[in-house]
Specification:
single chain; 150 residues; mainly beta; eight-stranded mixed β-sheet; two-stranded antiparallel ribbon; 2 helices; 11% helix; globular
Length: 150
């Protein structure tokens, strides 16, 4: 299995993407949420696009997760379950869909723990993870009544 994230759009608060788990004759689609790009600064930025060695791990706080190695200038980067961008400190959260769960005007990922379990159970123990930018800048917020009428 191969794990790829295509970052699709970003606003001032978050980056959303499509996470693909690719096997022989099979593609499983998930979604992802990360912090926005802020020059790779610790705890407030997503990581740079690239290819990274990754490995499965059982984490004391997050349970099943994937540790991403050799991120330039960073450590402790995980792919772990979370629903909201504000739960992340540079990590990546997978989900089964997008929805504004907490009604803050930003899309969140849904069923993150289920998505993480499915990814974890199918991926090799050690693998190469690929992360690509195809970002369009937008505001991800739901249109207000006024915006919807323009």
């Amino acid at each position: 299995m191969k794990l790829i994230i295509n970052r699709l759009s970003q606003d001032y608060a978050q980056t959303i993407g499509e996470l693909l788990l690719i096997g022989i004759g099979e593609i499983r689609r998930f979604c992802s949420v990360e912090l926005p790009w802020k020059e790779n600064q610790r705890s407030i930025s997503c990581i740079p696009a690239g290819r990274y060695k990754a490995e499965k791990e059982i984490h004391g706080r997050f349970g099943k997760c994937i540790r991403v190695h050799s991120v330039p200038g960073r450590s402790g980067i995980l792919i772990h379950s979370a629903n909201h961008f504000h739960q992340l400190e540079g990590c990546i959260a997978p989900g089964k869909g997008f929805f504004d769960i907490d009604a803050d005007g930003h899309v969140d990922v849904t069923k993150s723990r289920l998505a993480m379990d499915q990814i974890y159970d199918q991926i090799d123990d050690v693998f190469v993870f690929e992360l690509y930018d195809a970002i369009v800048f937008s505001d991800h917020r739901k249109p207000t009544e006024k915006q919807g009428m323009e």
